[in-house]
Design goal:
With 231 residues, this protein is α+β, with helices and mostly antiparallel strands. 48% of the residues lie in helices and 12% in strands. It has ten helices and seven strands.
Length: 231
């Protein structure tokens, strides 16, 4: 049995196994709200180096990277990973799994170990992660802080401010316009202090366009203060 067939046998229920010609493989499940992915790295090259789960929410990622609506490439459009989940809940990820990697897949024993490690990660980390983050409203308790550094360091892997603003807008958060105005004012002050900085002006213009896009976007939900309580 080849490695692809081995992986298909342990794919979670409902997930499809996808691979490319560079040897990368992943389990993926697409729903109405987004795509759940369990990345296996370039495991098909014979080395099991690592694995990680991630979620890409359509409503968020299609605003940040419009091409996601058609290419659905979760390598470039990631809302949250198991790493951030671990930071948020102060929880170790991959216990009993990561310490056994990397693993060279050069024997039947190694293949059995691979199966065992992947199944453990799926049950222990990936599926509970996907179960918790089913809805963009789940983010609201963790991004309510005004300290954007906390959001950057502990919640989102990238584009933290923009993701917070998208979620606030889609959830009709009452402080969205205030936040947008504050961030625009920061750019205005920075340009005033550095009038010859062409890169800063370019970034400011792009951010203004982003804010205008959000202001034209209709919320998905009506605001409810109950969203601020973690489930």
């Amino acid at each position: 049995m080849d490695l692809l067939e081995e992986l298909k046998m342990i794919s979670p229920n409902g997930y499809s196994l996808k691979s490319n010609n560079q040897g990368y493989a992943k389990f993926e499940l697409e729903s109405n709200f987004g795509i759940n992915t369990i990345g296996l790295g370039d495991i098909l090259n014979g080395n099991f180096i690592g694995l990680k789960a991630r979620i890409s929410f359509f409503p968020i990622e299609e605003i940040l990277r419009p091409a996601f609506a058609t290419d659905k490439d979760t390598n470039y459009s990631v809302t949250l990973t198991t790493d951030q989940h671990g930071f948020i809940f102060n929880k170790a990820i991959g216990v009993g799994v990561y310490e056994h990697l990397p693993l060279e897949l050069n024997s039947p024993v190694a293949l059995e170990t691979m199966r065992s490690l992947i199944l453990r990660f799926i049950e222990q980390d990936a599926l509970p992660f996907f179960e918790y983050w089913k809805d963009i409203r789940c983010f609201l308790p963790f991004i309510e802080t005004s300290d954007i550094r906390n959001v950057v360091n502990n919640v989102f892997a990238g584009d933290a401010l923009k993701k917070k603003m998208v979620i606030w807008k889609l959830c009709n958060h009452p402080q969205f316009e205030k936040l947008a105005s504050e961030r625009l004012a920061i750019y205005e002050q920075a340009i005033s202090d550095n009038p010859n900085d062409a890169q800063l002006k370019k970034e400011s213009k792009a951010f203004q366009s982003f804010v205008k896009q959000l202001q034209r976007t209709e919320p998905l939900y009506e605001w409810d203060p109950a969203y601020l309580f973690p489930k």
